[in-house]
Write a structure and sequence with these properties.
Length: 262
């Protein structure tokens, strides 16, 4: 296994993504920006967005959607104009509680976690933002829900419950926009803080586990297959370079780096 540092000096990097054109981005939570790693020149370009950007996803090749835990919003960056706008900032008449990470299903629903203030009480929840712009709570009662991942043809969803040191699983009902039968999937234990999630082309679940220095690799039944050691102890998020040859991309905050693992 080859681990390569693509860039450093990032201010708490999270949310790596790759567009279909092969452009690579991640957020800088403490830098209030989205950073683009240019693979052809091995350089970095920053897009100042303010706030505290967390998880991120690609809407299309010109549009990135990201959580902002400081502005309590789901926001969009237009890469052509470098302007931002807000997609959602409330649910049931209340401000979103520090949204953290997000994904999109094939129907266009954006699913995101709101863990704010849930380190010591189960007040964390998840929302769905429909293509019509409606926001609803789809799961609650969690201790810091974090990264999330759809598996098994989008019939199930994995949620990292950071402060319970475990992964949860539930059935994703696209008709009712609810998560049913939420239950434990894999217990890590200790002081491990599961953060971001990604699915490989062979259906292996990859979980960046903060405070351990490892990416855990599980099958879809919840069995640990292996652990990948990374430089530093604080990997946050990860994605696969489906448009190129960089393999697994991992953000690591202790070293402030974006890593390539293949």
């Amino acid at each position: 296994m080859n681990i390569k540092q693509l860039t450093d000096g990032l201010k708490f990097p999270e949310g790596p993504v790759v567009t279909s054109e092969g452009r690579i981005f991640c957020v800088e939570l403490l830098g209030g920006s989205i950073a683009e790693y240019r693979r052809d020149t091995n350089t970095l370009k920053r897009y100042p967005v303010g706030g505290a950007p967390n998880g991120m996803m690609v809407l299309d090749d010109n549009t990135l959607v990201f959580c902002d835990s400081k502005k309590n919003a789901i926001r969009v960056l237009d890469l052509r104009t470098e302007k931002t706008k807000t997609l959602a900032d409330s649910v049931n008449g209340k401000p979103l509680n520090a949204p953290n990470d997000l994904i999109q299903d094939r129907e266009g629903n954006i699913l995101f976690t709101c863990p704010g203030g849930s380190e010591n009480a189960p007040v964390g929840y998840m929302c769905a933002l429909s293509p019509k712009g409606d926001v609803s709570v789809i799961a609650d009662g969690m201790y810091f829900p974090n990264g999330l991942l759809l598996i098994n043809d989008e019939t199930q969803i994995i949620i990292n419950e950071t402060w319970q040191h475990r992964l949860l699983i539930g059935e994703w009902n696209k008709t009712t926009l609810t998560i049913e039968n939420k239950r434990p999937f894999y217990d890590i234990g200790g002081d491990a803080e599961p953060d971001g999630l990604a699915l490989s082309s062979d259906n292996k679940i990859h979980a960046a586990v903060f405070n351990t220095g490892f990416v855990f690799v599980l099958d879809t039944k919840g069995h640990l297959e292996t652990k990948i050691k990374v430089p530093g102890k604080r990997p946050t998020n990860l994605c696969f370079d489906h448009a190129g040859d960089l393999g697994l991309l991992v953000t690591e905050t202790e070293t402030g780096t974006l890593l390539s693992i293949k």
